[in-house]
Amino acid sequence: MNVLKRLALKNLKMNKKRTISTVIGIILSTALICGTATLVTSFQKTLVQNAINETGYYHLKLEGLNQEEIKDVKANRDIKDIYEVERIGYGKLDRITK
Fold first, then answer.
1. Segment 46-87, tens digit of pLDDT
2. Overall average pLDDT of the 31-38 stretch
3. What are phi and psi of 15, to 5 degrees?
4. Is there a domain that residue 77 lies in?
5. Rounded to whole angstroms, how far apart are CA atoms 40 and 46?
6. pLDDT value for 91
7. Is residue 63 in some structural domain?
8. Has residue 10 been placed in a domain?
9. Neighbours of 43 (CB within 10 A)
10. Residue 73: burial class (beta carbons within 10 Å; 0-12, 13-18, 19+)
11. How confident is the model at residue 32 (pLDDT cuts 50, 70, 90)?
12. What angle do CA 33, 37, 41 make, to 5 degrees?
């Protein structure tokens, strides 16, 4: 091991320009990888936040529940918040103008 260490150090000292350029290349490639990973992570978090802002923040959406099932859901102690939407009806549009 000692022989290999001496040989490596001797070659590093003999080829200083190549050694410096290799070290700079390693530093730049590491910075590029870190920068790309940061950019991707930031873009992903932006997309998630945009989806939350547009559609709302919920973990579960239940449709078609009757009043008894809604009471059971409200009584569950593991549920923090609940939001109810009731469809009353619809209005028919005879003519749409632009």
1. 999 998 888 877 777 788 888 898 888 888 888 888 888 877
2. 98
3. -115, 65
4. no
5. 10
6. 82
7. no
8. yes
9. 10
10. middle
11. very high
12. 175
Q: Which domain holds residue 30?
A: 2-56
Provide φ and ψ at 30, rounded to 5°: -65, -45
Report how many domains make up the chain: 1
Rg (CA), the chain: 31
CA angle in degrees (0–180, nearest 5) for 32-34-35: 65
Q: Is residue 11 part of a domain?
A: yes
* Summary mean pLDDT of the chain: 88
pLDDT reported for residue 98:
63
| pLDDT exceeds cutoff 90 at 38 | yes
CB 65 within 8 Å of CB 73: yes
Residue 38's Cα: distance from chain center in Å?
A: 11
The tokens describing 62, both together, are 């239940």
Cα distances (Å, whole numbers) of residue 36 to 24, 44, 47, 90: 18, 12, 17, 49
